[in-house]
Amino acid sequence: MDLENLIVADSEDQDGQKVDKRSVQPQVWTEEQEICILNGLIKFSTKKGIDPLKHKKRFFSYIRGSLAVEEEFTLSQLNDKLKSLQKKFKNNLNKGKGISTPHENRLFELSKKIWGDDIKSVPATTEANIEKFGELGENKIEQVLEQLGEAKRIEFKKEWDELQILELKLSVKRAELVQFQSEIMLDAMMKKFATN
Q: Is the Cell cycle keyword given for this protein (predicted)?
């Protein structure tokens, strides 16, 4: 989608203070824009490697170049829309019944990619289990390990050390891949620059 007219317009009041012209009126979003926002959340997260919901200003800058809107919108309006989309997703998830329109179904599927893990990762009985069994913190682990024999403790430590080594190897492999791809991109850009 093209977005040519998506800069937030500010003006100054009589005292020289910046005032957002549209801060009073809520933004009306089209179905296409709602889909674009959700796709933008997914693409931003994939491209930048950061959570757009924790870096909303950066996401705002990114998405405002992707939406076709007749009127400009503010960060606050975008935040309101994100909250509304998340609330709609949670409500549809809790209802458990079918979605009525193809658009609502598309919104639900995209929302599931964004917020689905948050919903299913919290069991309903978590608080009751904590009260009943206590939290599995470092103190509990240490208490349990002290009750095990020396041989079992050494075995656990060895397994954890092996896991840590595998994680470090994976981290090195990832860094090598990033370096390799960066070198390819640099070569391509240098060739393009040399031909211009």
A: no
Tell me if the pTM is above 0.85: no
* Residue 108 · residue 99 · CB < 8 Å: yes
| More confidently predicted of 123 and 46 | 46
Q: How many domains does the chain have?
A: 2
The interaxial angle of helices 102-120 and 75-95, nearest 10 deg, is 80
* Greatest Cα pair distance in the chain: 78
Phi then psi dihedrals of residue 6, to 5 deg: -125, 35
Residues 6+ apart with CB under 8 A from 82: 37, 41, 53, 56
Residues 142, 103: Cα–Cα separation, whole Å: 52
Answer whether residue 72 is part of any domain.
Answer: yes
Q: Which of 123, 158, 177 is the last residue of a domain?
A: 123
User: How far is the C-alpha of 89 from the C-alpha of 118, rounded, in Å?
Assistant: 12
Parent domain of 78: 10-123
Helix 102-120, helix 31-48: angle, nearest 10: 40
Model confidence pLDDT, tens digit, residues 26-68: 667 888 888 988 998 998 888 888 888 888 888 888 888 777 6
